[in-house]
Amino acid sequence: MIKQGDKLPGGTLFEYVEVEGNGCSLGPNAFDIAQATAGKTVAIFGLPGAFTPTCSARHAPGYIDQAAAFKAAGVDEIWCVSVNDAFVMGAWARELKADGRVRFMADGSADFAKATGLTLDLSAKGLGLRSLRYSMLVKDGVVTALNLEDGGAFKVSDADTLLAQAKAQQGA
């Protein structure tokens, strides 16, 4: 399992892009994780699934609402990562009115979740292999803070916790 001080594993995440530009075509675009985090500070939060109750009502909205505060704390981008396809993640971002404040990145085959060891098996609930609920701060591809939830809990991966960590690291 990934831990603080580890480099993110290589791989690809996908994002549904609705407006052509900045080298992106319409529709799902692949992003190399190492290239996308190089030289940046990225707040990443992972969750079990788009449109699910806690994820939609509390987890993602916290990051969307705090986007400006994250920028002020030196965070270049915020990523929401879930084991869903890019079309679902794009629809969810529209539903939540993320408006470019948070990038909704698809890990459709759970490759990133598996590579980091942050998987959650929800097969008994008909959801299959999903991402554990977590948050992490990544600087130039290296994890500098990591908050893991136990099972389906939502206690330490919230926006306020990661924002406090980003502010503390900014002042350090």
TrEMBL record:
Thioredoxin domain residues: 2-171
Function in brief: Thiol-specific peroxidase that catalyzes the reduction of hydrogen peroxide and organic hydroperoxides to water and alcohols, respectively. Plays a role in cell protection against oxidative stress by detoxifying peroxides.
SUPFAM superfamilies xrefs: Thioredoxin-like
Biological process according to GO: cell redox homeostasis; cellular response to oxidative stress; hydrogen peroxide catabolic process
Species of origin: Aquabacterium soli
Annotated catalytic residues: 55
EC number: 1.11.1.27
Keywords: Antioxidant, Oxidoreductase, Peroxidase, Redox-active center
Designated name of the protein: Glutathione-dependent peroxiredoxin
Catalytic activity: a hydroperoxide + 2 glutathione = an alcohol + glutathione disulfide + H2O
CDD domains in UniProt: PRX5_like
GO cellular component terms, semicolon-separated: cytoplasm
PANTHER family, per database record: PEROXIREDOXIN, PEROXIREDOXIN-5, MITOCHONDRIAL
PROSITE patterns: THIOREDOXIN_2
GO molecular function: thioredoxin peroxidase activity
